[in-house]
Amino acid sequence: MAADSPQQNVFAAIIDEHYIEEPKLVQLLSAPPAKITIDGKEITIKRTAYATDPVTGKPFARPTTIYDAALQLGINIPILCHREHMTPVAVCRFCVVELEGQYRLAPACQRQVEAGMVVKTIATSDRVKNAVKILTELLLADHDTPREAHKEYGENELRVIARQLNLDPHSSRFPRTARDRGHDESSIVIAVDHNACILCDRCIRGCGEIRNNQIIGRMNKGYRARIAFDLNEPMGESNCVSCGECMVSCPTGALTNRKFVLPQVTERQTNVQRITVEELAPHPLFQGVSKQFLGWNEGAIVRRRFKAGEMICREGEFGNSAFIIESGQLEVFIAAPMKHVKARKNRGKGDKVNRGLFGLVRRFTSSLVSTKDDRIDHRDGGASGHPQRYIPIDAPVSLNFDDPVATLTADDLIFGEMSCMNNYPRSASVRAKTDVVVLEILRNVLYILQRNKKSKAMLDEVYRRRSIEGHLRSVPMFSNLMRDEDRFRQFLEDFRERMTLVRLNPGEVIFRQGDAADNFYLVKFGFVKVSQKQPGGEHVLSYVGPGGYIGEIGLLSEIPEIAALAPPGRRVATCQALDHVDLVKITGAAFQEILAKFPEVREQLVQVALDRLHENEVSRQRAETTSMGEFVRQGLMNAQSLLVLDLTKCTRCDECTKACADAHDGVTRLIRDGLRFENWLVASSCRSCLDPYCMAGCPVDAIHRKKTREMVIEDWCIGCGNCAKNCPYGNINMHGFEVQEEDPNHPGHQMAVVKQKATMCDLCSELDGKPSCVYACPHDAAHRYSGDEFRKIVEGRQR
Amino acid sequence: MIVQELRHIQERLGWLPKEEMKALAERLGVPLHRVHEVASFYPLYKLSPPKGVEVKVCRDMACHLRGAPRLRQTLEAFAQEISRPGCQVTVEGVSCLGQCDRAIAVSIEDHYIYKGLPESQLKLCIETAVKKGKMPYRKAGREPLGWKIDVYNGTPHYEAVGRFIRGDLNAEKVIAALKASGLRGLGGAGFPTFRKWDTVRRTAETVKYIVCNADESEPGTFKDRELMRRTPWLVIEGMVLASLVTGAEKGYLYLRHEYPDEEEALAEALREARGKYQVIGDSILGSNRKFDLELFISPGGYVQGEESSLLEAIEDKRGEPRNKPPFPVFQGLFGKPTVINNVETLSWTPGIVLNGGDWYAKGGVNGANGMRFISISGDVAKPGVYEAPFGLTVRDLIYKYSGGMRDGQQLLAIAPSGPSGGFLPAVLRRENLPEKFVEQKMKGANIYDVLDLTLDNGTLSLAGSMLGAAFVVYGDRANIVEQALNCVEFYRNESCGKCVPCRTGSQKLVNMIQELLAGKSSRERMSLVGDLSDTMILTSICGLGQVASNPIASVLRHFRPDVEKYLAAGR
After folding, report:
1. Cα–Cα distance, A360 to A60 (Å, whole number)
2. Is the pLDDT reported for residue A127 higher than 90?
3. Which residue has the higher pLDDT, B384 or A793?
4. Which chain B residues contact residue A175 at CB under 8 A?
5. Nearest CA in chain B to A178
């Protein structure tokens, strides 16, 4: 049976401690061995048996069952719902045996041996044989071939048993009960076909007791019973982590691996080489992964070869794969200019500025700007003008602002995980520096690597050894530290020693407002939603992405200024994983130690914490002092400058929109539509929402809030367009600029390419001071107000 | 706390919204599927908002025999008539409500259970519910009926507990009295009561539990209902005695939720036991003994009457039976040694302790031991609950106690254990009976009058049947094959679905009996029914699956001509 095959059990784990603590088991450990007879053969057997954890190879003890004794005697008892490493549930009853002196049959997988037992198995008992045949036919009557069955799938265990019993594995004497129990294809990795499910509970135990993911349970009762995920969500919408344990556990293919992701890698590329399970198995990263699972995913891992100079991926492209570096050197860089968009007044005739299509009567034009003095970096604690600034990217390195190029080698092991897990645009471009060999893997494979003990240990080790340095450099909070490279090195060593990696699934809560503060976290990849209970509901304060950190405030409460604003030792906000998030965790105690040693970090950190608290306080007070629910809900309270149209005066001439377009190279940043309060229309332009969706998903952490809560796009925007897509009000626009870039196909030659940059209303702050839209309105209907000013106006009207 | 918390949510909101279940899971720190697997298992819980008024017509045994399918059709038509947007009246079937003596039972909005009301009045009730008016409802009577079991004659003294605390009695004496009485479990399985108590008493564990199984849900069984309403103090005293004997300090009385009148009576008696009589609490009658007793309302389902499923329900799990061994006396509630007794079993113990084992033992007739309560329903003139001796003949039960057959019908069959023991025909034939019965009871005759059967455990198992608390009588207007389908459907509906033979087997039995009734069966199919029946008996985890095929198996054995008629129709 499959129980003996190591492949089958490769995902099994951890039940040992649980068992050893059982007092009943301790009793059995000291009980004398039992002499029992099975099918006429005698055996004296210990009362406890050892099963082997196939992952750790460690044995664990459990009570000896009749099934164990039969195995030792070489007697074959059919099992379907039982696996050696799972707690026996004895629901299928296929392993029943006859016990002398007992009328009813007993399940061998669950019944413990007792001295003097005389057992007859299916080999010698016709009662048992007939019963098992009937049970097999009962299940076959309603068992469908799984919808997503494919030839790689292992043998259907039910049909194997049917064949062993000389039954037709595809028919049954029992009538079929016409009932479609449904199927579920919402998960990208796993297909569920309830019509093939025989309710053996193996997936439930696989998910619950082996992986401790606790997603699958039974639902309903009786003949209507079936498996369900969480509160009967579609699998893809549940908290399932797609570890694959349920698929490996399923004997009938009711849970199978979906292969529709397969062709994407193999068909798209030319330099692709399929890779077999045998080739892959010795690879250190895949050694802990079930061969069976690798077999199912053949094609989702491919080997690709690149010649020196060839591009592997480009910034801004959407990707669903990650790359494991096997050999060669790669160059990782940001090709987009390190500049931001600025509007400038035309200097009249003879001006050299290219007017383009919209150049008729424009007074303004946009251009890309960045000088040492006019650099935008609004990240928390980012010391302006400091030379050592780093941009976080989806690789084990961070890129220097002034020279955004780095090299990766096989020692860095992997890059592109964030795009792969969360479907983000690539955060940087990667080019082969020498001839390069990589393994490209799809999300389901990365899922498994991240969840498999051995692979995860390797990935974590590489992070600890290599990536942590780049990561810390990209955290603005540590920028003071980097003024002195030796201090930074010291800090790095201290940090490295104490960090652990934590992996979260979408929706998982890291901590809640009011919880006792324990740890400090750096975000490695993914986005964390930070929210706070305020009058009018839960308000999102921020989305913290790669390079960001959370949890500092609760750990700094011995500082008087902070204690004045935050409850001591408690979390002031709730942090929740928005997508697949990897965090670097430092325990509170270790964190305090590090702070004591590095006062410069502490100083910077305290300042940021105070800023954050102060912002929260301001927004809370605003929310408290207003009674207008809608006003608050829509985030208008925090608006710095709303474009408000007085509808009693507005003739809908749209001059404001035109003026905006004129001022920004023909791309308007405002739309004359939006919320109405009485006779006021709040036109759509960036309003610095309470829940800034735009912040979630920037692969290079280039969109931020200023301390004043205004949104700002940093210079290293790579133009992927994620923020524009995420803004629910359409207030972020992509703006194309022509720049010169090295032609990847002709190294050494320059070529013109259009680079996108995200833009949003900047209140024409670079111009004369008065926003163009207001300036342009011929009817005095357009006004700019802060949220607070506007509230007073509206409230005044209402009274 | 999942089971009871879900009940609170439903009482508050009328159903279980997902957000509430999520919040509950977080509050209790359990995975979501743990809450959902419980919520979707028990019939009490609603996972979608109610559309209006819910009417449920009992579909089992006596109610079925007395025309429940017809009543349901009538009410369904009426429901369509009076439903309006915003208030949909739905009519559904429901498993036995335990009102078989007052068939047909109908529940409205789960709270109001009407017994034997004529159609016209039921319609008025439904209308009232639609208008959200005050529902007419008369509570069942609580007056004592002069039973022998009621040693206090309607006024509780908790004398037995008093004697124990005062030292006039001790554990050994109680066990001895129970042993002498021959009292066996009266919930169906018939395990000697003293042995359970003694085993739990002798265990090395210090934490132990007493559980009373008041989840009386087998069709045709309703005697505990009367005992809990008329003499609730007896079962309470029985539990306190069990705790004093075994050393358990916590008890649960697990009551089916369809017994609101009984819940009220028990709650009242419990209050008095705590306050006025001080036999429950931190100090029983001022002594250093303590016992806490919790009334646990079942979220529904017949299988909860199976003792290990009941324990699972108290443990907040799906009420699925456990593999036994280990038995509850060794590893019961929360893995601790547990006494589980039926309501009636516990209710007899004060009398036995006060009057001695003989008082109970000598109550039997025709050589049998002890007394018991019988629920009798179906085609008899006076269905109800009777205190009767073991060994009573079927003749006396039907003609002396129950006023004879209803409407002048002839006796067709009896079901001496509800659906679980199958049917016995009015005339038993030698060739259909086990050899031992023929040897011991028939003295060379070819037929045996079922009226001569004595109702005791030995005789009925000799006859290949079972003695339960339910006794359902079928008159000659009944179609026995169709009645067998009704009984098997009950098991199919109530199967928990844990093990293959019961979950799938009960459904296939229903399919195959339906084929038979439709004239589409064959001898091969009927022999397959026999094989399936054997497999279910041999391999099912619990009693439900083990007896689910008995109704049809007994019809195949004793009513072959009726089966042949349908087989012939198919040829």
Report:
1. 81
2. yes
3. B384
4. 508, 511-512, 515
5. B511
Taking the C-alpha atoms of residue A644 and residue A783, their distance in angstroms, rounded to an integer, is: 5
> What pairs with residue A712 in β-bridges?
A704
Shortest CA gap B533–chain A (Å): 10
**What are the DSSP E strand ranges found in B81-217?**
88-94, 105-108, 112-115, 209-214
Nearest to B36 among A134, A173, A232 (CB): A232
Element (H, E) at A306: strand A301-306
Inform me whether the C-beta atom of residue B514 falls under 8 Å from chain A C-beta atoms: no
- By Cβ distance, the residue of B35, B500, B503 closest to A222 is B503
Per-residue pLDDT reduced to its tens digit, A209-221: 877 789 999 999 9
Measured CA to CA, the distance from residue A196 to residue A256 in angstroms comes to 11
Query: Contact at 8 Å (CB) between B283 and B290?
Result: yes
Measured in angstroms, the CA of B465 and the nearest CA of chain A are apart by 16
The superfamily in CATH containing domain A499-626 is Jelly Rolls (2.60.120.10)
When scoring A19, A79, A129, A134 by the number of chain B Cβ atoms within 10 A, the one with the most, hence best to mutate, is A134
In this predicted structure, which of A29-33, A375-379, B32-36, B342-346 has the lowest mean pLDDT? Answer: A375-379
- Domain-wise residue ranges, chain B: 2-39, 52-130, 159-356, 363-477, 479-571
* C-alpha–C-alpha distance, residues A97 and A93, integer Å: 9
Count the neighbouring beta carbons within 10 Å of the beta carbon of residue A627: 12
CATH number of this structure's domain A2-182, picked from the four choices 3.40.50.150, 3.40.50.720, 3.40.50.970, 3.10.20.740: 3.10.20.740
Inter-residue contact A542 to A692 (CB < 8 Å): yes
Q: Give the right CATH number for B479-571 from 3.40.710.10, 1.20.1440.230, 3.40.50.300, 3.40.630.30.
A: 1.20.1440.230
Q: Is the pTM of this model over 0.90?
A: no
Helix (H, G, I), strand (E, B) or coil at B437: helix
Cα separation of A294 and A275, whole Å? 10
- Nearest alpha-carbon partner for A572 in A525, A534, A601, A603: A534
pLDDT band, very low/low/confident/very high, at A14 (cuts 50, 70, 90): very low
Nearest by CB to residue A135, choosing from B37, B528, B535, is B535
* Run of H or E including B376: strand B371-378
For residue A90, the chain B residues in CB contact (below 8 A) are 323, 499, 541
B30: burial class by Cβ within 10 Å (0-12, 13-18, 19+)? middle
Asked if the Cβ–Cβ distance from A130 to B500 is below 8 Å, we say no
Segment B286-305, tens digit of pLDDT: 999 999 999 999 999 999 99
**pLDDT for A434-478, tens place per residue?**
999 999 888 778 877 876 667 888 888 888 887 888 888 888 777
Amino acid at B369: N
CB contact under 8 Å between B500 and A175, yes or no, is no
Give A471 to chain B, closest Cα distance, Å: 34
Residue B17: count of CB within 10 angstroms of its CB: 14
Q: Is the model's pLDDT at B188 over the cut of 90?
A: no
**Residue A107: closest CA among B554, B325, B239, B23:** B325
**Tens digits of per-residue pLDDT, A15-57?**
333 333 345 666 777 788 999 999 999 999 988 877 665 444 5
Residue that has been written with the tokens 């954890």 in this structure: A53
Contact A138 B538 (CB under 8 A): no
The top-scoring range by mean pLDDT among A146-160, A446-460, B206-220 is B206-220
pLDDT of residue B294: 97
Whose tokens are 């706070």? That residue is: A532
Residue B464 token pair? 């290949």
A664 touches chain B (CB under 8 A): no
Give the residue on A whose Cα is nearest the Cα of B320: A221
